[in-house]
Amino acid sequence: MMEAACGTPPRIRVAVQYEDFDPGVEEACLHDDDHRIGGCGCFVGRVRADNGDDPLLALTLEHYPGMTEKALTALAGQAVTRWQLLGVTLIHRIGRLQPGERIVLVLTASAHRQAALTACEFLIDALKTDAPFWKCEERRRSKQWVDAKTSDANARSRWGQHD
Amino acid sequence: MSTLHLRYFARLREQFGRDAEPLGIPAVPYTVGDVIDLLIARGGVWAEELGGPRVFRVAVDQEMATLDTAVHDGAELAIFPPVTGG
User: How far is Cα B46 from Cα B24, in angstroms, rounded to an integer?
Assistant: First the structure.
């Protein structure tokens, strides 16, 4: 059955994976067949190198299989409702990642830029405090779980709760 | 007797030396707080991590929970540090 484009539901894609992702391919997938979309907000997070006495060799990302996918889908749903988005893609990598590698992708598609950009910022802030991922830092002389940051909790709290 | 499926993640998984275990609880109304008290009573690293100032989070059946959240027979109860993804 043919369905009018204006009746298609927002497209939500959530993935937790070891493999890298291609932001360009993901952006094309989100857009190509929906010409109501006027723009896309994009955030790509990468592993940041540091240059202390004992520099970072790698991060290992652990997660809670099942709960992670539910939490990401719930956040995507909140963003779609709050900003009337036409599509959201959330991809988070797990496993051992070296400095420079991509960790996370947030894509938000909407008719106009403001909704896409604002929702993109909301999603990366909310993902950092609401989705069950944990980073372990590996250095030559130490291995340590990263502590949660107060600044991340503050960034999340400015958006309020929308459950 | 009811049985819970406990799961531990990240630093707590390493501290407790396990990623999961079954836990028997009395078949009466029981909360997350009651489960935490049972674990603290084991002493050692359990009391240190769950009974002191260190912050931890709990999820029941993969939804974030509080100490007041009720648990039921067969529930999956996960205990983990504050999350650090993104």
Answer: 17
CB pairs under 8 A between A and B: 73
Separation between Cα atoms, residue B15 and residue B9, nearest integer Å? 10
Its domain, for residue B24, covers 1-35+43-62
Domains in chain A with CATH codes: 10-157 (3.90.1170.40)
DSSP type of residue A101? -
Q: What is the DSSP string of A34-86?
A: -TT--EEEEEEEEPPP--SSS-EEEEEEEE-TTHHHHHHHHHHHHHHHHHT-S
What does pTM read for this prediction? 0.92
| CB within 8 Å: A128 and B85 | yes
Q: How far apart are the first and last CA of chain B?
A: 40
Local structure of residue B9 (DSSP, 8 states): -
B54 touches chain A (CB under 8 A): no
Instruction: Give yes or no for residue A33 having a pLDDT over 90.
Output: no
- pLDDT value at A6 more than 70: no
Q: Do B59 and A67 touch (CB under 8 A)?
A: yes
